[in-house]
Amino acid sequence: MNRYFILFSTLLFAGFNPARAQSDAGYTGTGSLGVQWQSPIFVGKPYHALGLWQGVNIRSGKMRGSLAMGQTKRKNSDPSVPHTTGIFGQWGVTLGADPLHERRLVINSIKAIPFVNMGVTYMRLTKDSFPSDRDDIPMSFGFHVSPGFTLRLSSIYLTVMAEVHGLSNWIPFMHKSRRVNNLATGLIFQPVVSLAIDNAWDVLAPSAFGSQQSVSIRRELSQREYVDYSDRTVTTVTTYQSSRSSSEQMIYQINPYLGIGGSYLFTPRNDTRADTRMFGLNAGAKFGMFRLEGFVRQGQMGLNNGVHFSEIRGYKPSNQDLDFTSQIDALQYGATTGINLGWFFKNMTGSTNRKGGAIFGKLPFYSVFVNFQYGMTQFQSSARFTHSQGMAEMDALYAAKNIAHTTFSDARLVNGSTPFYGFGAAIEMGMLSLGFDNLKYKNAPVANVPVYHFKALLPVTRICNMLKLQRTVRQKLKK
């Protein structure tokens, strides 16, 4: 799913330019990041979603995008019928009332806001008759209409939507066999519930950061030749017109700050790993080109199969639901450091504000970070297999294939504690961060699965100052 996350991030920054001209400059920066849960209903088809699909959503101004992942299976089918995994993405605009349009100067406010989203939809999903080892999963494109309702609790958005998607596999180069096995076509209805957090544009109060660029253009207008017959010379006279155009690029930047906040780590379940759900607290600082942060989190970690999934399918073709994935309770603590790629872009543009280029100075409001984290994991339970027959079938397969039981292949051997490290990337919007991390565990390789994170680093001092200012204003108004 990482490549889809990168594409999703690219669409965010390509589709939203925070420096575009607006009559309401503050509204230009409004946005939110969040997680969502949805359950697609395939109208007129004998398939249903296996549990809730889970994903992320981003809102910038009037534009909204989301990306989710989940599984489906034929209704009333036996275990010999395989399930399939799909990707669901969409991008669109909000019509009518917008939950982000109203300014949020009153932090403890509550308001209910209806809205309608319209846009394009992308989905990759196959029928169970399509070979599971194929990489060229058919894709579909279409349009959607999503009426919804948002309950805004200060800077937290709880949204409920009823989405209707019309999808087609009109792609001309798609082979006929893939068109027949494309499940993501026709009409799809899905209820969606999302929880998002505001990007704190008001609290962080970003300032404009500009760079000037100029281009010179020289155009030839005419050319004439003059002949001097006395000395037999020819003189050529060319007339040119020169012009110069200039443009200014604007990037919004914020002051460095210390903050505390929360985090949510998750991984949707698929054939190779169980789902991860961990909640935590984090505290740190953002300044210039760096981000330093300490964290502690606890929850359920998803572990992988230990062997390639094709081995399991080949061993037990009569039970296509079988896998050896498992979950384990764990506590993690450590530190994360990140390098702000947006800082490099800001300084390559030729700043008109030289103070903005300091390594420990201001940083862009919208940015991309490359992260490294290191920490310790304490396992607090034994592994719980996702499938009821997973443990017994794993022992039988390992005995038949002469596979050794190690921490690479058997989740039951995971215990105690182990250090871990990992690299990742994230898009950041003010105090919010959304990204993925590829974590490696020294003494528990079966836990090496990519995870996605959603976290906030709240500028506590600035929020307290804003609350104090609001209290002072209310007291003066009463007088």
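The record above closes out task 2.4. Task 2.5 opens with a second protein, given below.
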Amino acid sequence: MTDIILSISDALREAQLQRLEASLASKSSGKTPSKSDSLKDKSANYQRD
């Protein structure tokens, strides 16, 4: 059970960092990322090999 909680916590932390990076990148480039791009990024996080 603890491994699952840690895995979820890591995934949430990574998603939050990616959103922050995307936000900073869009501010520096002057454009906002599209909603479909952010959905693609989120789905890529949950794919396992």
